[in-house]
Specification:
The chain has six helices and three strands. The protein is mainly alpha-helical and 126 residues long. It has one domain: Winged helix-like DNA-binding domain superfamily/Winged helix DNA-binding domain (Arc Repressor Mutant, subunit A, Orthogonal Bundle), CATH 1.10.10.
């Protein structure tokens, strides 16, 4: 059996279970894009706390403040993030934590059989 090649370049990982969930599919595209930037900012931190300012999101996505605000609210409502500390009023940044609540909010697939099968990457399998 061949093993997958290990890619050492920086990346974020999103699983089929999340992509196929009702919660993910119901998110606006802007929220999905911002979530990927949040994953990059989180980088697997042990504390699950990270900050990302609206201006940083604007620089990375070219979205305006209203669209960013709506997307962050959608991510929180759908259970993808929790806002631990709210900034803004005093020019502070929001402090976020990633959340798995989306699994119950939108109904993630419950078993491996419910997930779409993906072809092997570059013809390799585990």
């Amino acid at each position: 059996m061949k093993k997958h090649k290990i890619n050492s370049s920086p990346h974020v990982r999103i699983y089929f279970a999340m992509m196929e969930s009702k919660a993910w599919k119901a998110l606006p595209t802007a929220a999905q894009i911002i979530y990927l930037w949040m994953l990059k900012e989180h980088r697997g931190r042990e504390t699950n706390r990270f900050s990302l300012s609206y201006s940083q999101i604007q620089d990375r996505t070219a979205f305006g403040n209203n669209r960013i605000s709506a997307a962050v609210k959608a991510l929180e409502k759908a259970g993808f993030i929790n806002i631990l500390e709210r900034g803004g009023l005093f020019k502070a940044w929001n402090v976020y934590a990633l959340s798995d609540q989306w699994k119950t909010v939108g109904g993630a697939p419950k078993s491996k059989e419910e997930l779409p099968q993906s072809p092997a990457v570059n013809g390799e399998v585990e």
